[in-house]
């Protein structure tokens, strides 16, 4: 791996960082206060992203995307991580899983999503099935020539703005030596489809304005044309397109940690106690040293996992390591920053308390820290027969 960025990659970083500082930062406090992103502001962010040529930059040029590599896209996500997720959501990164669209699905879902004409959301999690995807109860059964969906999904990010949802449901069951094993199929479901309801989810302390929604399916009838990939092939679709999304959590954690660190460093140099900057005190200076070391380590671990994808190398363990370490690093960095700020860190005059709250969810979504540790250990032990 070449540890230096090319001129083009440096330009990507500087362009996205400038966008976040100028188009995202000024609106964060208002979104934090209201918990809402005004539709006109959302449209403005989306249009400016389109004008920059960065909308759907995670898609290949052949379908209208910018064709960035995994490494380059990781750099984009890292810079977006500096800003409010409620606002950077409209920077527009449709789910790569849409590349599985075929035939008429490309014109109806894939291409409009890449052009910014339609927004998508991904739905897997259920009240009784989070990381245990095979435990999902939301199901679809054949009825004539159609499928009839029933069940509930929750914690669905972005569904409040979605024109359609990519939903994983159980469509059968196999008996295995380890017990019943559900077959999963992926469906494309349009907002407004009879029997499909999107309603408000739960109030979260993390990422205000970036809402989670609840999806209800009540005898929702869909034709075969709405199946993404093969019937009972949902896991194949998932494994091919989704596991790299953990890189997104890792990269955005790094970006947010760097923004937090910059604030901690400046405060340590400016805040004076006992006649000198508090950064002169070993108790503070050592925290600063530990923070930047952990941030750099998480950054390189994450970029290395993206680089492996670009090289066509196995990267499952490396991605899990990046997601695990970066998300837990962010928790330590935000907590240390708050400690450096002291009591003021808990006041909403500064964004520190927001970063601290927002950091907590990163160890949960897209696979908990425990799941990442399971993936890592499994990848190491399986070759040894354990």
Chart the SSEs and their pairings.
Elements: H1 7-34, H2 39-52, H3 70-80, H4 85-88, H5 104-115, E1 120-123, E2 139-143, E3 146-157, E4 164-176, E5 179-190, E6 196-200, E7 212-223, E8 227-228, H6 234-241, H7 245-270, E9 272-273, E10 276-277, H8 282-310, H9 316-341, H10 352-359, H11 369-381
Parallel strand pairs: 1-4
Antiparallel strand pairs: 2-3, 3-7, 4-5, 5-8, 6-7, 9-10
Description of the structure:
It contains eleven helices and ten strands. It has helices spanning 7-34, 39-52, 70-80, 85-88, 104-115, 234-241, 245-270, 282-310, 316-341, 352-359, 369-381, and strands at residues 120-123, 139-143, 146-157, 164-176, 179-190, 196-200, 212-223, 227-228, 272-273, 276-277. The chain has a four-stranded mixed β-sheet. The two termini are 31 Å apart. The model has no long low-confidence stretch (mean pLDDT 94).
Strand order of the largest sheet: 1-4-5-8
Please write the string of helix (H) and strand (E) elements.
Answer: HHHHHEEEEEEEEHHEEHHHH
The biggest sheet, with number of strands, parallel, antiparallel or mixed sense and barrel status, is: 4 strands, mixed
Name the helicity range. Answer: 40-55%
Name the poorly predicted regions: none
List descriptors:
four-stranded antiparallel β-sheet
Question: Could you give a short description of this structure?
Answer:
The protein is α+β, with helices and mostly antiparallel strands.
């Amino acid at each position: 791996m070449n540890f230096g960025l090319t001129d083009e990659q440096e330009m990507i970083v500087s362009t996205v960082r400038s966008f976040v500082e100028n188009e995202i930062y000024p609106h964060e406090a208002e979104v934090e206060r209201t918990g809402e992103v005004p539709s006109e502001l959302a449209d403005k962010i989306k249009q400016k992203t389109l004008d920059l040529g960065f909308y759907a930059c995670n898609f290949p040029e052949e379908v209208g995307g910018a064709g960035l590599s995994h490494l380059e896209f990781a750099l984009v996500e890292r810079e977006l991580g500096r800003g409010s997720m409620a606002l950077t959501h409209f920077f527009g990164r449709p789910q790569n899983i849409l590349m599985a669209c075929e035939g008429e699905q490309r014109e109806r879902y894939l291409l409009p999503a890449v052009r910014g004409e339609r927004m998508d959301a991904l739905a897997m999690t259920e009240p009784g099935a989070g990381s245990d995807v095979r435990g999902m109860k939301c199901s679809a059964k054949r009825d004539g020539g159609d499928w009839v969906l029933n069940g509930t999904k929750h914690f669905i990010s972005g569904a409040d703005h979605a024109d359609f949802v990519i939903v994983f449901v159980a469509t059968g069951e196999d008996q295995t030596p380890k017990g019943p094993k559900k077959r999963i199929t992926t469906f494309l479901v349009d907002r407004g489809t009879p029997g499909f309801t999107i309603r408000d989810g739960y109030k979260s302390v993390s990422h205000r304005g970036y809402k989670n929604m609840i999806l209800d399916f009540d005898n929702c009838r869909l034709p075969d044309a709405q199946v993404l990939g093969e019937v009972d092939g949902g896991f194949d679709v998932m494994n091919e397109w989704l596991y790299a999304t953990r890189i997104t959590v890792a990269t955005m954690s790094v970006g947010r940690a760097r923004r937090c660190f910059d604030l901690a460093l400046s405060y340590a140099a400016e805040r004076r106690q006992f006649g000198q900057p508090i950064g002169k005190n070993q108790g503070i200076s050592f925290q600063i040293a530990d923070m930047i070391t952990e941030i750099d380590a998480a950054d390189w671990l994450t970029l290395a996992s993206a680089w492996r994808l670009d090289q066509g190398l196995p990267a499952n363990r490396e991605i899990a390591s990046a997601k695990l370490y970066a998300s837990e690093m962010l928790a330590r960095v935000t907590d240390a920053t708050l400690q450096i700020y002291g009591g003021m860190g808990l006041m909403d005059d500064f964004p520190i308390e927001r970063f601290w709250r927002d950091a907590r969810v990163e160890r949960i979504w897209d696979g908990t820290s425990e799941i990442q540790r399971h993936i890592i250990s499994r990848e190491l032990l399986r070759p040894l027969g354990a």
